[in-house]
Amino acid sequence: MAMISENFLLQSVAARRLYHGYAADLPILDFHGHLTAKVIAENPRFRDLSEICLEGDHYKWRVMRANGVPERYCTGDACPFDKFTAWAKTVPYTLRNPLFHWTHLELARYFDIHELLNEKTAPAIWQRANERLQSDALTPRGILSKFRVSALCTTEDPLASLEFHEQIARSGFATRVFPAFRPDNALRTHDPRAFNTWADELAACTGLNIADLSDFLEALRLRHDEFHRHGCRLSDHGLNHCYAEPCTPREAQSLFAALRAGGHLSSAESAKLNSHLMIFFGRIDAEKGWTKQLHLGAQRNLNSRMLELLGPDTGFDAMGDWIQATSLSGYLNALAREDALPKMILFNVNPSDNYLFASIAGCFQEASSTAGKIQFDSGWWFLDQKEGIELQLNALSNCGLLSRFVGMVTDSRSFMSFPRHEYFRRVLCNLMGDEIEKGLLPDDDELIGTMIRKICFDNSAEYLALPTVVDSTPFAAAEQRS
Amino acid sequence: MAMISENFLLQSVAARRLYHGYAADLPILDFHGHLTAKVIAENPRFRDLSEICLEGDHYKWRVMRANGVPERYCTGDACPFDKFTAWAKTVPYTLRNPLFHWTHLELARYFDIHELLNEKTAPAIWQRANERLQSDALTPRGILSKFRVSALCTTEDPLASLEFHEQIARSGFATRVFPAFRPDNALRTHDPRAFNTWADELAACTGLNIADLSDFLEALRLRHDEFHRHGCRLSDHGLNHCYAEPCTPREAQSLFAALRAGGHLSSAESAKLNSHLMIFFGRIDAEKGWTKQLHLGAQRNLNSRMLELLGPDTGFDAMGDWIQATSLSGYLNALAREDALPKMILFNVNPSDNYLFASIAGCFQEASSTAGKIQFDSGWWFLDQKEGIELQLNALSNCGLLSRFVGMVTDSRSFMSFPRHEYFRRVLCNLMGDEIEKGLLPDDDELIGTMIRKICFDNSAEYLALPTVVDSTPFAAAEQRS
Amino acid sequence: MAMISENFLLQSVAARRLYHGYAADLPILDFHGHLTAKVIAENPRFRDLSEICLEGDHYKWRVMRANGVPERYCTGDACPFDKFTAWAKTVPYTLRNPLFHWTHLELARYFDIHELLNEKTAPAIWQRANERLQSDALTPRGILSKFRVSALCTTEDPLASLEFHEQIARSGFATRVFPAFRPDNALRTHDPRAFNTWADELAACTGLNIADLSDFLEALRLRHDEFHRHGCRLSDHGLNHCYAEPCTPREAQSLFAALRAGGHLSSAESAKLNSHLMIFFGRIDAEKGWTKQLHLGAQRNLNSRMLELLGPDTGFDAMGDWIQATSLSGYLNALAREDALPKMILFNVNPSDNYLFASIAGCFQEASSTAGKIQFDSGWWFLDQKEGIELQLNALSNCGLLSRFVGMVTDSRSFMSFPRHEYFRRVLCNLMGDEIEKGLLPDDDELIGTMIRKICFDNSAEYLALPTVVDSTPFAAAEQRS
C-alpha cells in the first residue's frame, strides 16, 4: 500500500469529509517563505531531482549528517546522483521524522511516484522524476500553477532591488509575487563593521547621506515606501527575542552616532538602540496598514566550524530558551500605548513557549480592519510537523480564536515544499473531525468546514489585504535605479 | 443534537460509569474564587443574562476583542442586549476555545437551554434566560444551592471587614462562605506610596501604630487571627514568582524602616523584604494549621493603555516565563528548615512548568495531619480547559499522588462558573475510564470511583479542615469595629 | 484480571505483533545505572522483599511521604515487614504513577505474583516473595542472567578501585560489568574543602603530587587510562547545566592554584574553571573513542533538613528550569571547533526542554565511527514513565533520527528495575504499532520491527563499542594498588 493514500492522516470519517469537502481544493496563499523572485522570473528547468529536492534543503542535510553521511554528499562536491542516492539511503532511517512523510508526499504530488524511497528504489525514481522535470509542469512557474499558489511573499533585505518582482508582475503570471521587508541587517548594532557596511549600501541605494539616526530612519522609510509600491504588505524580523528596553530619542541618537563612527556598543546599548529601531519599524508598518511578522527564539549558527566552512542556513541552527515574555509583551505594549500597533503575526520555535505566546497575543487584540489583529502562528521550523502543528493549534485554540487564524506558510527555500500546505490541512481536518466524532465540536460540517476554509485561505487573504492590482509606474523608476 | 449531551466529554463506557456512578452527584467545595460575600449576603436578582453572563468576565471580553468587537460592547456603555448580542455573534468563533463548551454548559445547566448560541438564536435565548432569572432558583443563593456548594472561599484583602461573611453565617444559609486571607498589598514593597497607604489603613483597622516592622507584623497577625475567627483556613498569594532571598531580621527591619519613611527600595531590596514577609506568612499559617495557596507565574496588566482606561482584571494578563525553581524550592525549604511549613497548594499558570512544580512539591512532603501536604493544583486560568486539566493531571500523576489531589476550584468572578466543576469531573472520569479500558488502570470501578470521589470532594474537605460550626461571638465584635 | 497481562500497554494488533515478534526476547544492554559491582561480585542473597524492593529506592520513599507515611517506615528503623506493609498500603494510592505499573511488573516478573499489592494482600505476597528470594534465580547474578543483561555499566568516581569489576570479569560471569567514569567531584570547584580533600585522595591514588592544574589533569588522565583498561567506554557528568565560559589556559591555571591553596572561587570563577575542565574531559573521551553522557537539569537536595538527616539520594531532588541552550551548545561547539567532540548522549530531566535538547543535538552530528553521534536520550528520572518516554520519543523523532536511538537505561539503584526495559519496549512498540494502524508508518513489520530491535539493543551495542574481551593484565596491577 502506498504511504500517501487518499486519506493519509485522516483518521475519522468526519475528518475525511472535511478535508475532501472543504480543504483539498483551496488555493494557497504563501505569505512567508524564502523562494527567490529571480528563479520565478527566469523560470529555468530543474536540472535533476537532486537539484529540486536537495539543494539548499538543510532539513535533509541535518538528518543525513545524523545518519553518518559524510558532508560531501550533503553540501559537498559529490555528483548529483550520488547525493540523491545518499539521501535515498537515509530515507528509511527517517521513520517518524516529518521528512519521511514530506518526501513521499513530494514524490506523489510532483512525480506521481508512490513507492517508498530507499537505496533499492532510488535509481528508478531518479530516472522517472528526472524525465518529468523536463515538462513545463515542473518548472518553477509550472509548480506554482500546479499548486494553485495565488500569492507568494519572498523575504527581502530592504536593499533588494525588486526588479524580478516587477518582471513577474509585468509578465501577468497568475501567481502574485510580493516582497516582504526584512530589515535584520538594520539591527546588527552589535557589529559595527557589518552595520556600517550595510548602512553605506543603504545610503547608496537611497541616494541619502546617512550621517545621523534621522537620516538612517529616513532611508529605511524610503525603502519601506518603495516596497509598498511593489505590493509589499508584510515586514518580518528574525530575532532571538524582542527588544523592549527604555531608550529616549536622544539616547538613540547618541548610540547611533557612536556606532556609525565605528564604535562598539555594549550588549545593553545595542539592545537599547534596537528597541528604538523596532518601535520605528512598528510605526511605519502601522501607518501603512502592513502586517509585522516576528520570528522569535531561534538560535542560529551554533556550530562555528561548520559556519566557517559552509556559511549560514546550512543546518546548524536550533531552538533557544531565552526568556521571552517580558520583552515581547513590552514591545507590543510600547506600540499599543502610542496607538501604533500594526497587525502582527508571532512565530515561536520552542514549543514550550506556545501557550505563553498565545496568551500574550490575547492582551493586545483590538477592533481593527480585520479580526484577530495579533496572530500566534503555525508550527515554525522544527515545529512544522504533525505534533508541532497540533501543539500550536491547541495552544491557540485554548488561549484565543482558532477561527481567526491566518494559517500555514511553507517558510521554505525549496520549490518542493508546497505539499506542506496539504499536510497542514490534513492535520487540521483530522483534529477537527476527531472532535466532531467525539462530540467536542458540533456535528455540523458546514460550520466546521467553513471555519477550515477560512483558516486555510480566506482568513489570510482578508487579514493581509495584499494588493490585487499593483501599480506598475514605480516599477520603471525602481528599475532605472537598481 | 445538543452540544451538551448526557455523555459530553465521556468517550468510553467506563468513563460514563465512573462519572454517572461516582462524580456527578457530589457537592462542590469551592475553596478558591473571587465571588463577593456581599452579593451572597444581599442576594439580589440578576437583572438580565448580560449581567450574569458577561459582567466582570474578562475571559469573554478577551475573545470578543480577538474577534474584532469594539470595546463598548465589552466593558463599555452599550446596552445589555447589544452586549449580549455581540457576545452571541462571537460564540461561533470560539470553537475549540473552552468558552464554547462553558457557554453551552452554562446555558444548559442554568436555563435548560440546549440550542447553540449565535446571532440568530440570541434574541430567543435572551428572552427565555431573562425570564428564568426572575425565579428564586437563579439568585446568587439559589445558584449556590442548586449546585450544592457546601462551602465557598472568597479572596479577601487583610483589611476586609468580613461583615458580609458574618451576615451569611448568621443567616444559617447552607453554603458556608469563608474568607481567604490574601495579603498581596503587604508585598507591594516596590511601590512606597501604595505600600504606605495600605499600611496606614492596616494601622487604622487594627488600632495599632505601625512604626516599625514588628508593628506591621503584629497588625497582620491581628487580622490573621480575626480571619481565623471567621472560619478562614486558607491564605493566598498572587506572585510572579516566589521570594527566597536571604534576609536577616535586622536587614528586614532596616528595609522596612526605609520604605515606611517613603523611600524607594531597589528591586533586590524589595525582594529581600518580601522574602522576610513570606516567611512570616508561612509561619502564621503553619501555627494555625491553615493551608497556603501560591498562585505563581501570571504576568498582569501588560497593556498599560487599557489598564489606564479600564483598571486591572479586565483581560490584559498573560502567563510569564520567569525562572521558578530556585525561588519556589528555596521558599519551601526555608519554612521546612524551621519546621514551619504549612500545608500548601501550588498553582501554576504556564503549562511548561507543570512537571517542575509537581516534582518540587514532592521534595517537601511529610507526615502531616493529612496526606498530600504539598499539593500541585489544577489547571489555573489559561489552563482551565480540557488540555490544560489533562496536562496538570498527568504531571501530578507521574510525579506524585493523584489520589491525594484536592481537586478543582472555579477561581471565578462569575456566578455562572459552577459548571466548571462538572467539566473537570467529566475530564477526569474520561481520562480514568479510558485507562481502565486500555488496561492501564485496574478494571475495578469501586477502586477508581472511590479515588474520583475523593479528588472531586472528599480530599479537599479532609485536607482543608474548614470549620463546620463558626463561633459567632467574634462576629459581633468585628461588626462593631467595621 | 491481572494488571500485567500479556498485552499490557499494547493497544493495537500491530503493537502486539511488534512487541512479541521483535522486542520481547532481546537481551539488555544497561549502559547507565547505579548498581554496585561489589554486590554483583559477592552475590549475596536478598534478605527479604523489603531489602530488594525498598532499600535505596527513593522513588518509593517519595510517594510514601506524599501519602503521609512517617519517615521511620521509609528510611528509618521500622522492621522490614512493617516497612513493606507501609509500602503495600501506599500502592493503591499510586494509581497513574509509574510506581503502580512498575510494582506489579516487578511482582510478576520476579515472583510470578499477579495479585494487586495492597494492605490485604501484603502478608501473603511478603511470604511468597521471600520464599522465592531464597532461590539462586533471584540473587543479584541470578537476576542479571534471568533478564539477559549482556552488559551493565556502573557509575564510578575516578578514585574507585575497580577491584570488584576485575573480580567479576575474572569469574567469567556472562554479564559484562564495566565502570563508567563520573568525575563530578573534580567539578566541585565552588567548595574548596571538598575539592581539595578529593584532590588529595586523587594524588594518593595515582601517586602524583597535585600542585598545579597540569598535575591535576595528568592524575585524572591516569585514572581515565585505568578505567579504559577495565573496559570503561563511557564517562558521565551530573550537572545543573553545562559550562561554556571562555577561559584561557593561563586563567585556568591561576584559578586552580587559588582553589588548591584553599581559596574560594566566585561563582563566575568556578564556572570558568569548570568550563576548562569539561573541555579536558571532552578531549580525553574523544581521544579514546569513549561516549560522554551529560545528565543535565536536576536540582538536587532541595530539602536541607532532610539532607542533614538522611544524606543525598534519598528523594529530595526535583527538576530545575535553568537556561540550558547557550551553555549546552557552547560546550558542544567548543569541542567541535577543535575536532575533539566525542560521541555524546544528552539526558534531560525537564520535559519542557526535550525539543530544545533534540534540536541542539542535531547541530553537531557528523560522520563518525557510528551514526547518530550526538544522542538525545530516553526519559530520565521523573520522565521515566509512559508519558515521559513518549514525549522524548516524539521530540527525538521530530528533530532527529529515532532509528539511530541508543535506547533505554534503568538508571537505578535497585536490582528490581530491569523490567523498566520491558516497560520501555512496550511503550515504544505501542507507539509504532498505533502509527502503523493509522497509516502514519508503512505497514511493514520487518522494516519497523528491525528498527525496534535496533533501538532496544543493537544500536547501543554498535554505538558504545564496549569491549567484548577485557585484557586482564592491568587488573592485576590495579589490584595491587588498591
Tell me the layout of helices and strands.
The structure is a homotrimer of 482-residue chains.
Chain A (H helix, E strand, L loop, with lengths): L12 H11 L4 E6 L3 H6 L6 H6 L3 H9 L13 H11 L7 H14 L10 H11 L7 H7 L2 E8 L6 H9 L4 E6 L10 H15 L6 H17 L4 E6 L9 H12 L6 H22 L2 E6 L1 E2 L4 H7 L7 E2 L5 H13 L5 E6 L5 H8 L12 E3 L9 H14 L19 H19 L7 H20 L8 H9 L1
Parallel strand pairs in A: 1-2, 2-3, 4-5, 5-8, 8-9
Antiparallel strand pairs in A: 6-7
Helix pairs in contact in A: 1-18, 1-19, 10-11, 11-13, 12-13, 16-17, 17-18
Low-confidence stretches of chain A: 470-482
User: In percent, how helical is the residue content of chain A?
Assistant: 40-55%
Which range does the strand content of chain A fall in? Answer: 5-15%
Order of helices and strands of chain A: HEHHHHHHHEHEHHEHHEEHEHEHEHHHH
Walk across the major sheet of chain A and give the strand order: 4-5-8-9
Largest sheet of chain A: 4 strands, parallel
* Number of helical elements of chain A: 20
